[in-house]
Description:
- This protein is of the alpha/beta class.
- The chain is 24% helix and 14% strand.
- It has helices spanning 64-67, 140-169, 211-222, 238-242, 273-291; strands spanning 6-7, 20-23, 32-36, 78-81, 172-180, 199-202, 228-230, 250-258.
- It has an eight-stranded mixed beta sheet, with helices on both faces.
- Helix 3 runs antiparallel to helix 5.
- The longest helix has 30 residues, at 140-169.
- The radius of gyration is 18 Å and the shape is globular.
- Mean pLDDT is 93; it is low at 1-5.
Amino acid sequence: MAHIASLNPAAVGLAPPDVLVVHGPWEPASVVVLDSPHSGRVMPPDFGAVLSHEDLRDGEDEYIDELYAPAAALGIPLLAAQFPRTYLDANRHAGDIDLELLEGHWPHHYEPSGKGALGKALLWRTLDDGRPIYNRRLTVDEVLSRIERCHRPYHQTLSRLMDAAHRAHGRVLHINCHSMNAVAGAMGEGGAGTPRADFVLGDRDGTTCSAEVTHFVREQLAAHGYSVKINDPFKGVELVRAHSNPAAGRHSLQLEINKRLYMDQKTGLKIPHFGVLQAQLMQMLRAMQGHFA
């Protein structure tokens, strides 16, 4: 990854650096805040999976943290998870427990999203191809430990960054940064084999940010000739739901980038358009800073 200014959350009592990192300032220079919950690749020692580290990167948003890295120079913070999505998905509710993965009774708040049936709840049970990640069930204490160590500080840190932007500028525009496969897989949204647009913006049907924000971002991307869809097939999940309140000036928008725009999905390597796309994303962020100042 290109060098960018990074701050250790442990220094402010939030989390150790193998859990999350904040690139850029803790006090945002503008209304914009970014987060990347699925670009982590540090395998925790207590994972206990039966698959290889490479297999456990299934579902990773490859290079997304690097694509947005230059935002730090614009005074925009980027919160990035360091743990893999297969270990814990920060974009799920803490109560979204897969009971099939659990040993015994879950005695705490339970809020299933339906992803458990696919093995993709808070803690993944299977990879996208159906292979089991574990050869046993996890205990309640193991699940709680992951929530306390990873999920809670991630959400607390995002809240802290958004609160700082809102306090300083009167509102905050949170972009929840993701990538998507070029074509939907067997269990993918939209149906297997369905080609994806270049970008998909998700505002949960207009509930997590104003139409002005969504359409401004859409126009910025479409101006470069990209195809952009809104809430089709991705509407946004927990991070935009939990941290938004448009009426109070707290806007959250999920932004999915088609991986074919910046990488070869067969080799896993970046393609020449990576730099072009990165510059275009920075242009979009600068436009947001100016328009919503």
